[in-house]
Amino acid sequence: MIDIKNIKKKFKEKEVLKGINFDVKEEEKFVILGENGAGKSTLFYILTKVYNPDEGEIKIKKGKKLLGFVEEPQFMKNMNAYENIKYITSSIYKKINKESMDKYLKITGIQQHAKKKVGKYSTGMKKRLAVSILLLIDPDIYIFDEPTEGLDPIERKNFIKLMEDLKERGKSIIISTHVLSEAKEMADRVGILHDGKIKKILSKDEFKKNDEYIIYTETQKYPEWLEYKIEEGKTIIKSNNIIQTLKKLTQYGVRIKDIEKNTSILEKTFIKISSGDGKND
Ligand SMILES: Nc1ncnc2c1ncn2[C@@H]1O[C@H](COP(=O)(O)OP(=O)(O)OP(=O)(O)O)[C@@H](O)[C@H]1O
Questions:
Q1: CA-CA distance, 55 to 70, in Å (whole number)?
Q2: InterPro entries annotated for this entry (predicted)?
Q3: Which of 20, 32, 41, 71 for mutating ligand 1's site (highest number of atoms within 8 Å of CB)?
């Protein structure tokens, strides 16, 4: 659906993006994970055509549309949500009825505040209004810059569900975050952005299947079916369903004293890359 090739961007002498490469398919959620200042917003400003890149190109499948807001759109503080939607979409829609606006305001849970002036909205509410507008316009490629920032846990959960729904409708979704657990929860693939490059791309298969746990047991005698290794005296097991595995181990006679989640592959890779220890592409 979208192919990003060798994007470079400098601000004066500062090279912020040094050659970004990745593609996003239909029905795919691609998360850009990077620490603060890694260049996520710069990349998104380029994707949404606010900035031009110095080099590189963005190829979008013919006839497909990309849309997203980096930070929030410029809402009018003295207007309510309906008036803002009409104002922001005026170049696309000549007329827009209240029912269609309500439909999307409802999905993001902001409808009950729709008559309030947007100047009185919290960050989370403004984010949800921005998402309502995106849903209303319904592009093929959605861009979400740090979308869960300022959302409470329920709003966050709803947002993650919404991403899944968009994916099921065949959309391509590009999301940025600096929160590792969210990348893991939302992504089909994660691209780790560091030092102006996507240093590594990991797929869900790679980072979800490899859930590892450290188990503390009375003896280190285990059944043959258990996938395990012993590192520094600790037994590390792999499991996709830890409750089931623990139950089976107990039935086998292993006495488990404690259990702890091992650092995930995604976490290990992110820490390694962010600490400057990652390989260059
Ligand atoms: N318009 C600009 N002029 C000069 N430097 C800029 C400009 N925009 C961004 N930068 C610099 O580029 C670097 C990357 O910034 P960017 O906002 O893209 O990072 P980010 O990954 O989105 O960070 P955060 O998660 O903190 O928003 C920073 O060092 C920033 O100071």
A1: 21
A2: AAA+_ATPase, ABC_transporter-like_ATP-bd, ABC_transporter_ATP-binding, P-loop_NTPase
A3: 41
Instruction: Say if residue 195 is in the same domain as residue 251.
Output: no
CA of 16 to the centre of ligand 1 (A): 7
Using alpha carbons, list the distances in angstroms from residue 197 to 19, 43, 50, 227.
6, 10, 20, 35
Ligand 1 within 6 A of CB of 194 = no
- Which tokens in the block code for residue 184? 């893991």
| Nearest protein CA to atom 28 of ligand 1, as residue | 37
User: Same structural domain for residues 58 and 109?
Assistant: yes
Q: Are residues 125 and 234 in the same domain?
A: no
Query: Does residue 39's CB lie within 6 angstroms of at least one atom of ligand 1?
Result: yes
> What is the value of ipTM here, to two decimals?
0.93
* CB environment 143-155: b (16+ within 10 A), e (fewer): bbbbbbeebeeeb
CATH (domain of 217): 3.30.70
Question: pLDDT of 228-270, one tens digit each?
Answer: 999 888 899 988 788 999 999 999 999 999 999 887 788 888 9
Ligand 1 near 42 CB (within 6 A) = yes
Q: Whose CA is nearest to atom 5 of ligand 1?
A: 11
Residue 280: what pLDDT?
47
